[in-house]
Amino acid sequence: MQRVCFLLKVREDRLAEYRERHAAVWPEMLDALTAAGWRNYSLFLRPDGLLVGYLETEDFAAAQAAMAATDVNARWQAEMAPFFEALDGAKPDAAMQPLAEVFHLA
Question: Do the Cβ atoms of 17 and 83 come closer than 8 Å?
Fold first, then answer.
């Protein structure tokens, strides 16, 4: 099982709406994440907009590819892109660069 952690930056003026959107994630998006192998997926948001994501999956590249192949993900990413800083035209899911794990207490 791979443990994946990534960082993104939510625009400070969109924090409240970002929280609202994630309090009501579309059921079909949740189903797609589960079917694509995303497990124990969490997002943590700091008051300045730093977003920390964590998930577990058998194969992160395969899990990303499975999501990229879904229509619901394309729609979700298009709606979420304006919430983020410094995407340089990328979709939020494409901008997720995993952090290197340096310690894990098993």
Answer: yes
CATH of 2-95, one of 1.10.10.60, 3.65.10.10, 3.30.70.100, 3.40.50.300: 3.30.70.100
Q: Residue 79 belongs to what H/E stretch?
A: helix 71-80
Of 3, 12, 17, 22, catalytic:
22
Average per-residue pLDDT for the chain: 93
Q: Residue 10 is encoded by which pair of tokens? A: 């939510």
Provide the pairing of β-strand 39-45 with 2-9.
unpaired
Sequence-distant (≥ 6) Cβ neighbours of residue 18 within 8 angstroms: 10, 45, 83
Is residue 22 among the annotated active site residues?
Answer: yes
pLDDT of residue 86: 73
* Residue that is written with structure tokens 């079909």 in the block: 28
Is-contact 85 11, C-beta < 8 A? yes
pLDDT digits (tens, 9 = 90+) for 69-95: 999 999 999 999 999 987 766 677 777
